[in-house]
Predict the structure.
Amino acid sequence: MKQLVARLIFAATATVALASAPAFGAEPAKRKAAQTYSVFKTDGDPVQYDSNDDSAKFDNLLDLSRHLMRMAARMSKYEMPDALPMVSRVSRVELERKVCGEPGPNCKVAALYEASRGIMIAEDLVPETNMFHRSILFHEMVHYLQEMGNEMAHSAACERWYQREVEAYALQNRFLVSVYSPERVSYAGARPVCDKPIETQAHSARDIKSPGLND
């Protein structure tokens, strides 16, 4: 009985093998080549994830602004705008006066966006070469995209301001990851309650180091 069962199993195995084998003289099936999706094109501009340009040195703010705007549009839900915002360097004192009323040690503002003046960054920042400084400018580019996209335009001013900040900090962290920076940022303030309109989007978060990583 055991010999009969063994013969039946052998015969079934041989039948399956013959059925799966290619016919005599037929070419073996070719495997499909692996496909990659690391590069795609949009509006004629090549866009590559993990691009060396993301952490490259830029000679001027205009070229850097163009690059960061493309990155911000790619990383977010917003469309590429028709025009870049004006980007200018101003003193820390002017930034602090705009955001906090009076300059002081507790007012740590590095940059801000205003619809009427565009993006203002502290004159001591060098985003052309410093990746963390570059992430601050990227943060403000996100605010420009939010404004152009009318993000939460029908919400209360305080809620709109808060939600835009949360999104900008989240995207800024994605940017820092993309350039292999160990630094991270977070929104350090409480959820605001509006008693007057908020007209500026300021970058004032403290930087947070990743656990176990040194500068």
